[in-house]
Amino acid sequence: MTLMFDISRPLVTGVPTWPGDTPFSYEVSWTKEQSGSVNVGKLTMSIHTGTHIDAPFHFDNEGRKVMELDLELYIGLARVIEISGTSSIGAEELKAYELDGITRLLIRTNSWTNPNEFPTDITYLRDDAGPYLAEKGIRLIGVDVPSVDPLDSKVLAAHHTLHANDIHILEGIDLANIALGDYELIALPLPLVEADGSPVRAVLSPLK
Ligand SMILES: Nc1ccccc1C(=O)C[C@H](N)C(=O)O
Ligand SMILES: [Zn+2]
Ligand SMILES: [Zn+2]
Hints:
The chain has four helices and 13 strands. By secondary structure, the chain is an alpha/beta fold. The strands form three sheets. The protein has a nine-stranded mixed β-sheet with strand order 1-13-11-5-7-9-10-4-12, covered by helices on one side. Strands 2-3 form a two-stranded antiparallel ribbon. Strands 6-8 form a two-stranded parallel sheet.
């Protein structure tokens, strides 16, 4: 039996976006009747909608763009852990978890409680999370919230410290129905050459 768990948030009209950011829209801009053969869709969205990855260019003008990222980090063994009921996560909380040999870590914070609304308060990563995770060999961090920083942060300390420690960022995954443990993750970004991030279809498969 091949099981695959979809941990992506559906992209649909009305999906929550960052306050002030571009609303998501899909429309058939050229109908089958008009074209004579096919329906042709048009997509308008902020890249930071739903389940997506950030490229360093998102928070650093000199940073790498999507096509320059390490593709192999978005496929492979990932561990899903839960750290909930805390307003932030740093080395202290992370120390409780066995992370040896783990490259990709997905954290269920359970702090985005209503998926139909943009959250007002989320569990974020503190400055010492990046260095601690890097020391453990983590290269990709995934969270079930729209940001690794506080929603009102302008300095984006977690984004910067994760990047400085060579850790790639995956945001907005949906881990609500996923049992904790190890999986094969696939969350490939689109080949957007100039982009600051990319929507991803993120899935977890049980290990064989
Ligand atoms: N889209 C935005 C609009 C305004 C201010 C921030 C954002 C963000 O996307 C930041 C967030 N940390 C993110 O990486 O998704
Ligand atoms: Zn983002
Ligand atoms: Zn981000």
